[in-house]
């Protein structure tokens, strides 16, 4: 039976965790895996999350099954955080296992509705985007989104890609905090993208995985809200795994705006059906934490303060990095945890071997893995490998 299977490549980034752990050098820097770290290098459980877990421990009376759509109170409470208001009955929402589950359901939905649709994506992107699109057999069409050498976003090529596509094709956009480049669409760029979408009928699938870690909860939502307010059909794949620090609990949601309430209800029935055959129903604990926080104004206030502090720390490290050398200036205007440095594989290897600096083979760094006091040593190491 299994002789025909090809061996799948191991996840290089996860392998890096093992190498980092085994490295005895005390000055070692982990800029690899994409989780937020605080000033002491820890990925903390947020105080609002701890408090919500306590409430759940004391008040939950059952763990009986929910349905394939998860907890609708969770998806409803999250809506004003995502959209800035109640977006109304045209927006269907379903709980998913993480942002990954949301992207997967969106791809399943498109593949069923429009099996021949092209999915435009900007390169480079989160590698799992391509794996998910391949798994659903959708035709993924790249355009150059980010010039790593120049550290600039290529808005013109994004718009050209949309203009060359047809109504019913899909463009995959990052809502904020682009992974892996940090290259952000500014408000004026979002307005240009909106115009191209209105002219062509191309539908956006917005992956919104790092809400709050860039320009804050309001600033980061500009594009998502502009497009949802002004287009008839939009998909938003949301993750609470980063902005609530719930990574392993797998907390996400997919929101789909359809032409009218009836169409939204048909979309919802399809999403529930996909959920049922994929994971039957999403895991509850993480979503219950988010629900408990958002139901309680005081816990919500604490959470908002915490996510604001996290975003501020990332911006602080970015400013310090940008000030550390002329070649690093762009890191200040980039947003979120990631940047991609123009480094070849040998340079990345030399950084690890000779300087104990760990990063993805692509040159992607997790800015949150840096402490401001590490920056001089980091910049010295970069210079030593010819950056
Ligand atoms: N989209 C992007 C761009 C991501 O970087 C990630 C996480 N690496 C996800 C989605 C999925 O996040 P989650 O852990 O919630 O599945």
Automatic annotation (TrEMBL):
Its cofactor is pyridoxal 5'-phosphate. The keyword Transferase applies. GO terms for molecular function: identical protein binding; L-aspartate:2-oxoglutarate aminotransferase activity; L-tyrosine-2-oxoglutarate transaminase activity; pyridoxal phosphate binding. GO terms for biological process: L-phenylalanine biosynthetic process from chorismate via phenylpyruvate. The keyword Transferase applies. Residues 27-382 form the Aminotransferase class I/classII large domain. One of its GO terms (cellular component) is cytosol. It comes from the Bacteria. InterPro entries: Aminotransferase_I/II_large, Asp_trans, PyrdxlP-dep_Trfase, PyrdxlP-dep_Trfase_major, PyrdxlP-dep_Trfase_small. Pfam families: Aminotran_1_2 (PF00155). Signal peptide: none annotated. Coiled coil: none annotated. Gene3D superfamilies: Aspartate Aminotransferase, domain 1 (3.90.1150.10), Type I PLP-dependent aspartate aminotransferase-like (Major domain) (3.40.640.10). Keywords: Aminotransferase, Pyridoxal phosphate, Transferase. NCBIfam families: PRK09257.1. Homodimer. PANTHER family: ASPARTATE AMINOTRANSFERASE, ASPARTATE AMINOTRANSFERASE, MITOCHONDRIAL. Belongs to the class-I pyridoxal-phosphate-dependent aminotransferase family. This is Aromatic amino acid aminotransferase. The lineage of its organism: Bacteria, Pseudomonadati, Pseudomonadota, Alphaproteobacteria, Hyphomicrobiales.
């Amino acid at each position: 039976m299994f002789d025909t299977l090809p061996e799948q490549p191991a996840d290089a980034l996860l392998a890096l965790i093992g190498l980092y752990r085994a490295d005895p050098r005390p000055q070692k820097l982990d800029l690899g895996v994409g989780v937020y770290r605080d000033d002491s290098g820890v990925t903390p459980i947020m105080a609002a999350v701890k408090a919500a877990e306590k409430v759940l421990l004391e008040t939950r009376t059952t763990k009986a099954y929910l349905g394939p759509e998860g907890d609708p109170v969770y998806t409803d409470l999250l809506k004003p955080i995502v959209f800035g208001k109640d977006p109304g009955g045209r927006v269907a929402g379903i709980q998913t296992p993480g942002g990954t589950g949301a992207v997967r359901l969106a791809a399943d939905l498109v593949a069923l509705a429009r099996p021949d649709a092209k999915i435009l994506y900007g390169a480079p992107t989160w590698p799992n985007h391509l794996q998910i699109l391949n798994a659903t057999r959708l035709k993924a069409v790249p355009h150059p989104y980010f010039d790593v050498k120049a550290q600039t976003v290529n808005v013109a090529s994004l718009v050209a890609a949309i203009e060359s596509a047809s109504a019913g094709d899909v463009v995959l956009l990052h809502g904020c905090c682009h992974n892996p480049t940090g290259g952000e669409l500014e408000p004026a760029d979002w307005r240009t993208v909106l115009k191209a979408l209105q002219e062509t009928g191309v539908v956006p699938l917005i992956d919104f995985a790092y809400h709050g870690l860039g320009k804050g909860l309001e600033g980061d939502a500009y594009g998502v809200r502009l497009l949802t307010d002004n287009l008839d059909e939009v998909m938003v794949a949301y993750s609470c795994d980063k902005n609530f620090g719930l990574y392993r609990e797998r907390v996400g949601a997919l929101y789909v705006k359809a032409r009218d309430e009836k169409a939204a209800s048909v979309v919802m029935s399809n999403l529930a059906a996909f959920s049922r055959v994929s994971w039957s129903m999403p895991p509850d604990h993480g979503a219950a934490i988010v629900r408990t926080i958002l139901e309680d104004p005081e816990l919500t206030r604490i959470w908002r303060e915490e996510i604001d502090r996290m975003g501020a720390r990332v911006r602080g490290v970015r400013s310090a990095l940008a000030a550390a050398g002329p070649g690093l200036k762009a890191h200040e205007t980039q947003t979120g945890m990631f940047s991609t440095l123009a480094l070849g594989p040998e340079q990345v290897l030399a950084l690890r071997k000779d300087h104990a600096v760990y990063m993805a083979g692509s040159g992607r760094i997790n800015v949150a893995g840096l402490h401001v006091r590490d920056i001089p040593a980091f910049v010295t190491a970069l210079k030593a490998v010819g950056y």
